[in-house]
Specification:
Layout: H1 10-17, E1 20-34, E2 37-49, E3 60-71, H2 75-78, H3 80-96, H4 98-105, H5 110-125, E4 131-139, H6 141-149, E5 169-174, H7 199-209
Antiparallel strand pairs: 1-2, 2-3, 3-4, 4-5
């Protein structure tokens, strides 16, 4: 994954190095039952601050708010599927160390690396590490403030009613099914006609097919 991330120009890399990432995590005390499994909510707020820039409003460049529901530790005893998943996750984290992988992938983007590393460590430390639901809201305060300064009308593509405090994107992921049934070997077989291709080649191919106007 780290090798597939395209290299950055020196000036862009210097700008990314000037960014700072922060992460805060709190247990909200809220609970929910998801597919018959008791879950606890944890709220994680990640921000990435950019250095001061001319004619750009001050403030965080990006803020992500994650509402994460993890299976309670007691559910590993009551629900066989949760016990199996919890054991698998423990083995995976110990063998593959996703935190170190994330740090390598984002090594050119220190601000993002710090925030995502903190997120991964936080997910490992709570409950069973079995994720049942996650809601993500992404805010771009700096961009929002810039858009708000634009005059209303046709010159502003966001319109007069643009609210810079609303999320730029919202994503919800929730467990739909959980089972201890055996998975057939065919699920893990590569379909006929498929071949292994490095991620860099896929990106180059996508760019080659992109119209010049879109580029």
């Amino acid at each position: 994954m780290a090798h597939s991330v395209p290299g950055m120009p020196a000036d862009a890399k210097a700008a990314m190095a000037a960014m700072e990432g922060h992460s805060e995590s709190t247990e909200t005390g809220r609970t929910a039952t998801i597919q018959g499994v008791e879950a606890e909510e944890r709220e994680i707020v990640m921000t990435v601050d950019a250095p001061p820039m001319p004619n750009v409003p001050a403030g965080p460049m990006m803020r992500m708010v994650l509402h994460v529901w993890m299976a309670k530790a007691s559910e590993a005893t009551r629900v066989p599927a949760i016990r199996e998943l919890a054991g698998y996750n423990l083995l995976s984290f110990g063998a593959m160390n996703p935190v170190a992988t994330m740090e390598k992938v984002f090594q050119q983007m220190p601000g993002f690396a710090d925030a995502f590393s903190a997120l991964m460590k936080d997910l490992q430390s709570g409950g069973t590490a079995v994720l049942l639901r996650m809601q993500v809201e992404t805010f771009m305060p700096m961009i929002g403030a810039m858009m708000k300064q634009m005059p209303a009308g046709r010159s502003n593509p966001f319109g007069a009613g643009f609210d810079p405090d609303t999320p730029l994107a919202q994503v919800t992921q929730e467990l739909a099914e959980i089972s201890t049934a055996s998975i057939p070997d065919s699920v893990f077989q590569v379909p006929e006609g498929y071949r292994s291709v490095p991620a860099v080649e896929i990106i180059k191919d996508m760019l080659a097919k992109t119209p010049a106007a879109a580029k």
